[in-house]
Amino acid sequence: MANNGSRKQITFDLCTDALKRYYPHQEPPLNPQYYNQAYYDIRRFMKEHGFEHRQSSAYVSAGRLTTLDIVILMERMAAELPWLGRCVNEIDVADIGAQHSLKKLLETASRPLEVELGELSMEAAAARPVRQKARSARRCTYARER
After folding, report:
1. Residue 114 lies in a domain
2. Residues 87 and 111 in one domain
3. Are 83 and 115 contained in the same domain?
4. Which segments within 2-103 are labelled E, that is strand?
5. Is residue 72 situated within a structural domain?
6. pLDDT per residue rounded down to tens, the chain (146 residues)
7. How far is CA 24 from each of CA 5, 87, 132, rounded to the nearest angstrom?
8. 35 touches 16 (CB < 8 A)
9. Burial readout 43-69 (b: 16 or more C-beta within 10 A, e: otherwise)
């Protein structure tokens, strides 16, 4: 049976100290955060090679890839971004099976909470002046007792 591959997720963990040292920049750097450009370089590379940026340093392939495809991708990445090999704490690849967004489910489940929080905010606002008066009265009583 032939291996047709699967969709892949690739995640990166970069070392900031290594980026500061090895990411290409002029001396002195015009922008002290110059090394953050590395994340945009990776994003551009991944998009050019059929990956979607999902979150933080996680990318998901648009189509199916084999292990050989990933090896070739890493070789191309090393050639195009030669500093990356020295700056990676870890880079992982995972096969993706069926993927389902849970966003709508979470939003729907959160709606009653929004209503409750809204009601609590209104109740708290209505009760706030009474509480402040009560505190002021206590302070006055305390001051008179001393």
Report:
1. yes
2. no
3. no
4. 7-14, 51-55, 58-61, 88-96
5. yes
6. 457 899 999 999 999 999 999 999 878 777 778 889 999 999 999 999 999 999 989 999 999 999 999 999 999 999 999 999 999 999 999 999 887 788 888 888 877 665 566 666 666 666 665 555 444 444 444 344 44
7. 35, 12, 58
8. yes
9. eebbeebebeeeeebbbbbeeebeeeb
Distance CA 84, CA 80 (A): 9
**DSSP tag of 6:** B
Q: What domain range is 110 assigned to?
A: 100-146
Beta sheet of 58-61, edge-to-edge order: 51-55, 58-61, 7-14, 88-96
Helix ranges, 62-102 (H): 67-80, 84-87
**Residue 80: other Cβ atoms inside 10 A:** 13
Q: And the tokens for 26?
A: 């002029």
CA distances for 144 relative to 95, 130, 137, 139, angstroms: 73, 21, 11, 9
Distance from the Cα of residue 26 to its chain's centroid: 29
The pLDDT, as a whole number, for residue 27 is: 82
Q: Look at residue 98 in the predicted model and tell me its pLDDT.
A: 80
